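Task: sequence design from structure.
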C-alpha cells in the first residue's frame, strides 16, 4: 500500500527544461512545488574532465537504461513490434535536466507557417495539396501570440544569434551576439549568398560571451571544446536546466526536488487530477503525492504513456481517426544530406560547439513555392561545426576500400578535409503513425512499454530528393572536389542515429475533438492537469524542438498561475 504524503500546490513529473521552467516560474510566484525526477541528481561539477567519447558518446552514460524501460517499434500495424534493445535512432535522457543536459544547444523558433500549417497550406495551394492520410492541423495559437514567450526563453538561456532574414518577426534582438565564424562557416555563407540564399548564424545556447540572465544566473562563455552533444558542459556555458532554471526554483525555498522517483500513474477522480503515484527506485517503496495541480513535463513518450496507463483522455484509434492520446506522432526527416571532400584544403573541424554553424531557411516551411513539388514544408539547411571527435568521425569518399592500408591512409587524409552540409527536414503526421501501449512487452515494474508505429512516406522521400540536391549544390559552390549528396530515403529503421526529435502524442489545438490540450497545454477533459513538452506538437518542423518547447512552457506557466487563482478552462 502506497504511503500518502502531505498535499502540495503543484507536483511536476520530470525535471528537465519543461519541469525546470514550471518550477522556477511557479515558485517565484509563491506556489509550493514538488518535482519528481526518476533519474539522479546532477550538478556542473559532475562534468569536470568529461571529455571521454567512449564513455559518454558511445556507451551512453547519460541515457536511460534500456534493460529497465525502453520502447517498442514497428513500421506498420501488420508487423509485430519489438523492443529497442540498444540505442540507435534517438537517445532517451535520464537524470536531472533530462535531455536538456546532453543536447547540442541549437535553439530555433518554429516559423509562423508552422502554427497555422493547415490553414496556410490550403489558402495558398488548395485542399488537394494535402495528401490522403496526412492529418496536419493548426496548433490553436499563432507565432505572434507565442513570440513573447520565445523571447523570455531566449533571455533565460542567453541564446546567442543574429536575425533570421526569413524567420518570424522578433520583438528584441538575441540577448548575446552570434558565435564565432569559422573558415568553413564563412565558405558556406559566401556560397549561399552567391546562390541568392539568406544565410545567418545558427542560434546557440552555447554562450558567445559571459552572460547574466534576468533571474541573476551568471554563466561563462563557450570554450569551443567540441564536447556538447551527449555530454554535460563542464563550464556551464551550454544552457541546460541544471544551470539556469532549477537553481532559481531551489533558491525560493518553495521547491522540493525528489530524485529516483519514478511516477507510474496520474491519480484522478471526478474529472480532476488528485496527484500522482510514484515508486522510489532506491527502496522500491510506493508513495502517493496529492496536489491541487499536476504538471506532466517528462519526455514525449512518457507523457503519452502515463496518460494512457492512467486512463486519462481518449486513446487514439487509427482505424476510425477518433481519440487524441497517441495521435500525430512525428519524427524528423534527414539530418545529414551531403558531404564534400577537399584535396588541398584543410579545416580544424575538431574544434567546435554544439550550435556553431550557419543556416539558410530558403527551403524551410513555406518560404518557397511548393506548387509543382510533391511535398509540403521543408528543411533548415546548415553547415555545423560541432566538433569532430576522433572515434565517430572518419568520413572517406565513395570507392575507398573498407579496410586495410588504403582505408587507413584515406581516413588520415580526409580527417580534416571533409565538411558536411545537412538538411534537417520537417515531418508531417499521418493517420497510421501513432503511439500506444504495447500489449506484450513490459518495463521493470510490469507496466506496458510505449509502442511506436511509424515509417517514412512519399512526402518524406520527395523532400529528401529535393533537399539533398540543394545541399549538393551548396557543397559544389563551396569548392568541394568530391560531393556526395543523399537524395534517397530508405524505410525508417530504428538502429541508426538520426535525432532525438520525437514529437506528438498529446497534441495541442483549438478543439477537444482533435487535440488533447489547449494553447496553455491544459488538458481539455482534466482541467487541473497540464502536459508540457514536444508531445504537444501536432507536427515536427525543420528545426530542433527545444526553443519552441521552452516558449510553450513559459506560456503554460502563465496559464497555471491563472488557473491557480481562478480554476476552470483557460480558453
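Answer:
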Amino acid at each position: 500500500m502506497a504511503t500518502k504524503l502531505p498535499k502540495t500546490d503543484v507536483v511536476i513529473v520530470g525535471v528537465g527544461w519543461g519541469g525546470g521552467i514550471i518550477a522556477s516560474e511557479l515558485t517565484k510566484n509563491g506556489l509550493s512545488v514538488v518535482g519528481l525526477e526518476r533519474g539522479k541528481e546532477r550538478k556542473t561539477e559532475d562534468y569536470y574532465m568529461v571529455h571521454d567519447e567512449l564513455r559518454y558518446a558511445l556507451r551512453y552514460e547519460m541515457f536511460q537504461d534500456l534493460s529497465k524501460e525502453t520502447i517498442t517499434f514497428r513500421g506498420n500495424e501488420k508487423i509485430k513490434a519489438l523492443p529497442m534493445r540498444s540505442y540507435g535512432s534517438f537517445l532517451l535522457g535520464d537524470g536531472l535536466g533530462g535531455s536538456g543536459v546532453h543536447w547540442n544547444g541549437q535553439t530555433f523558433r518554429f516559423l509562423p507557417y508552422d502554427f497555422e500549417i493547415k490553414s496556410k497550406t490550403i489558402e495558398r495551394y488548395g485542399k488537394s495539396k494535402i495528401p490522403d492520410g496526412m492529418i496536419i492541423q493548426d496548433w490553436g495559437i499563432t507565432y505572434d501570440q507565442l513570440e513573447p514567450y520565445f523571447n523570455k526563453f531566449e533571455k533565460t538561456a542567453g541564446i546567442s544569434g543574429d536575425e533570421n532574414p526569413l524567420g518570424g518577426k522578433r520583438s528584441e534582438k538575441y540577448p548575446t551576439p552570434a558565435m564565432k565564424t569559422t573558415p568553413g562557416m564563412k565558405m558556406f555563407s559566401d556560397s549561399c549568398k552567391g546562390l541568392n540564399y539568406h544565410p545567418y548564424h545558427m542560434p546557440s545556447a552555447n554562450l558567445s560571451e559571459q552572460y547574466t540572465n534576468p533571474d541573476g544566473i551568471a554563466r561563462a562563455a563557450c570554450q569551443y571544446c567540441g564536447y556538447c552533444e551527449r555530454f554535460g558542459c563542464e563550464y556551464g556555458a551550454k544552457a541546460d536546466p541544471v544551470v539556469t532554471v532549477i537553481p532559481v526554483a531551489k533558491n525560493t525555498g518553495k521547491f522540493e526536488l525528489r530524485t529516483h522517483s519514478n511516477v507510474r500513474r496520474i491519480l484522478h477522480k471526478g474529472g480532476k487530477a488528485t496527484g500522482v503515484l510514484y515508486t522510489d527506485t532506491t527502496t522500491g517503496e510506493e508513495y502517493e503525492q496529492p496536489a491541487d495541480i499536476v504538471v506532466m513535463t517528462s519526455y514525449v513518450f512518457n507523457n503519452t504513456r502515463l496518460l494512457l496507463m492512467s486512463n486519462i483522455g481518449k486513446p487514439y484509434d487509427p482505424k476510425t481517426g477518433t481519440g487524441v492520446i497517441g495521435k500525430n506522432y512525428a519524427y524528423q526527416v534527414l539530418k545529414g544530406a551531403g558531404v564534400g571532400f577537399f584535396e588541398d584544403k584543410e579545416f580544424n573541424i575538431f574544434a567546435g560547439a554544439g550550435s556553431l554553424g550557419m543556416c539558410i531557411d530558403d527551403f524551410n516551411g513555406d518560404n518557397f513555392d511548393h506548387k509543382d513539388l510533391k511535398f509540403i514544408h521543408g528543411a533548415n539547411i546548415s553547415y555545423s561545426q560541432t566538433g569532430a571527435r576522433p572515434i565517430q568521425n572518419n568520413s572517406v569518399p565513395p570507392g575507398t576500400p573498407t579496410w586495410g592500408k588504403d582505408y587507413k591512409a584515406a581516413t588520415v587524409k580526409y580527417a580534416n578535409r571533409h565538411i558536411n552540409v545537412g538538411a534537417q527536414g520537417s515531418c508531417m503526421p499521418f493517420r497510421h503513425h501513432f503511439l500506444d501501449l504495447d500489449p506484450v512487452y513490459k518495463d521493470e515494474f510490469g507496466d506496458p512499454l510505449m509502442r511506436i508505429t511509424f515509417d517514412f512516406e512519399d512526402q518524406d522521400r520527395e523532400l529528401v530528393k529535393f533537399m539533398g540536391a540543394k545541399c549538393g549544390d551548396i557543397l559544389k559552390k563551396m569548392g568541394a572536389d568530391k560531393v556526395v549528396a543523399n537524395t534517397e530515403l530508405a524505410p525508417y529503421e530504428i538502429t541508426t542515429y538520426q535525432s532525438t526529435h520525437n514529437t506528438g502524442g498529446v497534441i495541442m489545438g483549438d478543439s477537444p475533438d482533435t487535440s488533447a490540450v489547449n494553447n496553455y497545454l491544459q488538458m481539455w477533459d482534466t482541467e487541473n492537469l497540464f502536459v508540457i513538452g514536444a508531445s504537444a506538437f501536432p507536427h515536427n518542423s525543420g528545426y530542433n524542438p527545444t526553443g519552441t518547447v521552452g516558449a510553450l512552457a513559459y506560456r503554460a506557466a502563465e496559464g497555471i498561475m491563472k488557473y491557480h487563482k481562478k480554476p476552470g478552462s483557460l480558453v
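DSSP finds twelve helices and 22 strands in the chain.
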